[in-house]
# Entry
Amino acid sequence: MEKNIKEQAHTYFSPFDEPFRIEGMPFQKENGNAFHRLLALKNYSEGVDFNAACSSGIRICFSTDAENIVIKATVHRATAAPHMTVYGAFGFDVSVVSPSEKRWVATVNPERGESDMKADVVLPQGLKNVVIAMPQYAKVEDVFIGIPKDSTITAASFSYSIDRPIVFYGSSITHGASASRSGTGFPALVAGHFNSDYINFGFSGSAKGEVSVANDIAEVSMSAFVMEYDHNADSPESLKDTHYPFYMIIREAHPQIPFVMLSRISGGFSISEEESAERAKIIEKTYIKAKENGDENVFFINGGTLSDKYSKENMLVDGIHPNDLGMRVIADAIIEKLKEIH
# Structure
């Protein structure tokens, strides 16, 4: 595809050009025009490299008076697990933003078996900010936004209440499985509550507390940090070996921000209740040690207690990954810990 392709009544623009703004991609300068969440040319583990090229949490923002737009893209389906929805894994989630609210209007995705897509999206009348949340489990290339030739397009005019993004690191739960849409994963829900930008460093099956990943994430500006990778630690021993060191790398770079750590909600299904409790205790020990060392802005959430209101059976799709209710429960627990965030 070429930039500014004129086709029918629309002119097509690359989101990497002005007046568009791309969020959730802190290494954009280093990576150039590639949708990548870490450093694209750095050798992490194979799993981290693969998942960081998925566009979860990346958003395209602009303002327009158009009453319809067209999204054209090439979408390579990185993962197609049965516990994921097509909209959540491969869909572009479109919302409009005003000073008082963010409202979902549509989700569009390629036809089954196809990678090239062209989808029309109907928008409300009048000038509005548009946010397009990109697919969670796809590698996306050649995105173009079609704007009617008689409509205007300008930079997004909305602002955030917090001056730096909330940063999330974790497993497939953080990455987005199995939220029905990009906008219903717990990182998006938490950020929406605080009217904050956010960055999603969820790496499905591959978040193992690696020092190289922690060092690069620590370079990112952030207002708060949320860590959830119990599911990806191969054993309680590997969780124990990596958890406190990962915390310290982030904390030394960001000594004042709220730091939330949580354990899995799926004990009794994904693993035994006994092992789940053992892993939660390891994470809690990081929390206790941090508090003993004077950290007054660290918080622990025992995921095993989050089913007190709703049963685990109602919060999980496959015994591991939360559905939208499970994502909401996780988000609410994090919001409660971050309620004093500035």
Summary: Residues 190 and 334 are 7 Å apart (CA to CA). The chain has ten helices and 16 strands.
